[in-house]
Amino acid sequence: MNNILAIMKRELYGYFATPVAYVFIVIFLFLSGLFTFYMGGFYERNQADLVAFFSFHPMLYLFLIPAISMRLWSEERKSGTIELIMTLPISTCDAVIGKFLAAWLFAGIALLMTFPIWITVNYLGDPDNTVIIANYVGSFLMAGGFLAIGSCISAITKSQVIAFVISILICFLFYVSGFPMVMNFFTGWAPQAIIDAISALSVLAHYDSIQKGIIDIRDIIYFVVLISFWLYANVITIEAKKAD
Amino acid sequence: MTSENIEPAIEVRALDRYFGPIHAVRNISFSVRRGEVLGFLGPNGAGKSTTMKMITGFLEPSHGTVLVNGHNVVDHPLQVKAAIGYLPEGAPSYGEMTVRRFLNFIAEIRGFSGPEKQTRVEHAIKQINLESVVDQTIDTLSKGFRRRVGLAQAILHDPGILIMDEPTDGLDPNQKHEVRNLIKQMSVDKAIIISTHILEEVDAVCTRAIIIARGEILFDGTPAELRSRSDDNDLEHAFRNITTGSTSNYRETRLA
Fold first, then answer.
1. CA-to-CA separations, B27 to A78, B59, B196, B222, in angstroms, rounded
2. Model-level pTM?
3. How far apart are CA B114 and CA A239, in angstroms?
4. Alpha carbon A165 to its chain's center
5. How many CB pairs under 8 A join A and B?
6. Which residues of A touch B57 (CB under 8 A)?
7. What is the pLDDT of residue B6?
């Protein structure tokens, strides 16, 4: 536990010691504002809710989360510091969890910085704040899922650019797996069980379900399993590739 | 306690390592006791770093075993890693951190907290003479200082075993002298392995030298014995006799 905390602290410090954190937060806030007011029609909707704000988060995360996660392990491999931490008395699992939690916490901080929009909607109208809390929880869980994917991918390569591009691709596959265009591709030849399984993998379906304001245990389990699976794959990847 | 002193601190038995088709380390065996400073010599790419990486648990051996204080590295990696201080090749560290923060991080991972963490970090800073740069980020330091930060990190927990991959590489003559003195001081109660391709270092600090080339041990003995391998008592000649002479021997055995 102490090891996880030490790794997490160091990693978080790494974000804020360089411009990475500030650039990321500014861009995240700018884009989420842009989407909310121009594409989401926050005012035109004339509704006291944050649907216009949260419905763009999956799109936003698709590009911004891999930007956080790309450096997690590829930088350690490139600079050789992976040899340093892997010869300290700490398990690979602790290192993976520590770094992941730092990235997740960082994404959480960026998400919390959007609080003015919550204040705005409360000032303008009388929204259901429990729904908004559920929205935030759902958004945070989705960020965690994408981060776990990105963390694993960044362990595969020393190049942050490659990690970034492949992470976007895999996040995108999880994002669209419930869409008709994907489903149409499978229906007709694949067994129903496989089609159901593919559509159940959809990040968007679970995110949307939480966005309705009900935090269903199945949606929580989905994200926990998604994160655990990718972090487990992350540990295996590091064990296999750390010295390459 | 006594049994620990008799038992070698590091015991390497029949170690092999392949990287795909490349046989990087071939059947290497040796042991190191406390009080010994073992110098790993050899041409670049001889397998020195690979052997060190297997002892410190970064790489798994393809065959063979490494015992550190009687623990098998593969079965008990955490005990082994806790007992070792390791300076990896190139002294990697987190460039965006200040020296003090970096050492604090290492101390935390090594299980120190509160005032003890502070005294450990301060002690390491003093021992390695890092006082003048403690609040600078590591990225801004010269190569020599970065190497010394790596050294400070390795000795921070006063390990019984020190493994250093080219500890004096990139240091100026004065810094080299300091580091060698430090190694000599510490060698009293520690088992130390250093790799180097500076032969004078063998004379300066090592009690024993092993020459590795093409993944094999070609020589294992005291610096005096190494000298006697040349006609004119010169380390450099002895080294060349052993490493280049072996090449033809090696070819002959393969052809035969």
1. 30, 16, 21, 21
2. 0.90
3. 32
4. 15
5. 72
6. 86-87
7. 66
Q: Which residues contact B249 (CB under 8 A, 6 or more apart)?
A: none
- ipTM higher than threshold 0.90: no
Tokens of B36: 């010994």
Tokens linked to B7: 């038992």
* Sequential DSSP letters for chain B: -HHHHHS-SEEEEEEEEEETTEEEEEEEEEEE-TT-EEEEE-STTSSHHHHHHHHTTSS--SEEEEEETTEETTT-HHHHHHHEEEE-TT----TTSBHHHHHHHHHHHTT--HHHHHHHHHHHHHHTT-GGGTTSBGGGS-HHHHHHHHHHHHHTT--SEEEEESTTTT--HHHHHHHHHHHHHHTTT-EEEEE-S-HHHHHHH-SEEEEEETTEEEEEE-HHHHHTTSTTS-HHHHHHHHHHHHHHHHHHHHH-
Lookup: tokens for B35 = 């009080």
Residue B227 φ then ψ, to 5°:
-55, -40
Q: Which two tokens stand for residue A36?
A: 């909310």
**Over the stretch A128-162, which tens digit does the pLDDT of each residue have?**
889 999 999 999 999 999 999 999 999 999 999 99
Written as one letter, the residue type at A232 is Y
Chain B residues inside the 8 Å CB shell of A81: 92-94
Say whether A89 and B96 touch across the interface (CB within 8 A): no
Q: Give the minimum alpha-carbon distance from A235 to chain B in angstroms, rounded to a whole number.
A: 14
